[in-house]
Design goal:
five-stranded mixed β-sheet; 275 residues; 7 helices
Length: 275
């Protein structure tokens, strides 16, 4: 069964880890203690979620006693659906489940005609997730767990590089400690998908004109993981475009900053006759 939800008043979040002091150090969260942490996350939540809105929380909600979990839930706006995370199995008692609209291990919903899979963990593959195969008839997967984001030191963050552009980490570390609305997610994934389709089209043109030959080209300097880099070569491999930088990176063009992607496409158009 797949349940339809409206496009407005629907939010997603994950990995709030309320009442979990160690999460501040584990994920380098910018709070002096767990009291400040919890108060700020609750403030952020209620600043954008109204009492009548719907929130899908994709796991690792709160640590501590059932009473503590009830106290935190009582302070949060919205109708909350909980997708259980690995810590919820350990920390949440059945007596707390009535605090939520539903408590599930996974869900599949429909918003604006788009199928959305909800899980605590990211999938390596899922139906219609591959834009190369399904084009704009794609599905979305939203997840948490990996604690990606600019400040995170999670060991799982690097794994996000192998995910589809149709997948998104809704965890608080990746969203400035706020829930994220459906509109924000849909806009971001639409941009990613359009970029992916553009990249596939250029990859086909490059291989038709150049085969396996590398294209030498230098971009402007850009920052990648805190290191100044310049693309020096472009090449085609297994239907995609990759770049080599002066710092030794071998990276998909889709993982480069958007302005650098545009610079490369403009070069291919003008200098290599790929228009």
């Amino acid at each position: 069964m797949i349940t339809k939800f409206p496009s407005s008043g629907v939010f997603f979040t994950s990995d709030t880890h309320f009442n979990h002091p160690k999460i501040i150090d584990f994920c380098n969260r910018p709070f002096k203690d767990i009291t400040e942490h919890d108060e700020k996350l609750i403030e952020n939540w209620n600043s954008i979620v109204s009492p009548d809105d719907t929130v899908f929380h994709l796991g690792d909600f709160c640590f501590g006693s059932s009473q503590k979990i009830k106290e935190v839930r009582k302070r949060l706006n919205g109708h909350i659906y909980l997708i259980k995370g690995n810590h919820d199995d350990k920390n949440m008692q059945a007596s707390t489940f009535s605090l939520f609209e539903e408590v599930l291990y996974q869900a599949r919903i429909l918003i604006e005609g788009r199928t959305v899979y909800l899980n605590h963990f990211p999938f390596l593959c899922f139906s219609h997730g591959n834009v190369e195969t399904y084009g704009k008839d794609y599905s979305i997967q939203l997840f948490g767990h990996i604690h990606s984001g600019p400040n995170s030191t999670s060991q799982d963050t690097s794994r996000s590089a192998i995910l589809y552009p149709t997948q998104y980490d809704v965890g608080v570390d990746n969203n400035n400690y706020f829930p994220v609305s459906w509109k924000e997610i849909n806009d971001l994934i639409t941009l990613r998908v359009n970029n992916n389709i553009t990249e596939i089209e250029y990859a086909k043109k490059v291989t038709k004109k150049f085969g396996s030959e590398d294209i030498e080209f230098k971009t402007h300097t850009f920052d990648y993981d805190g290191e100044e880099s310049i693309v020096t070569e472009i090449y085609y491999f297994e239907n995609h475009l990759y770049c080599i930088t002066d710092t030794g990176l071998d990276i998909s063009i889709l993982n480069l900053p958007e302005d650098i992607q545009k610079e490369i496409y403009a070069y291919l158009d003008s200098s290599c006759g790929l228009m």
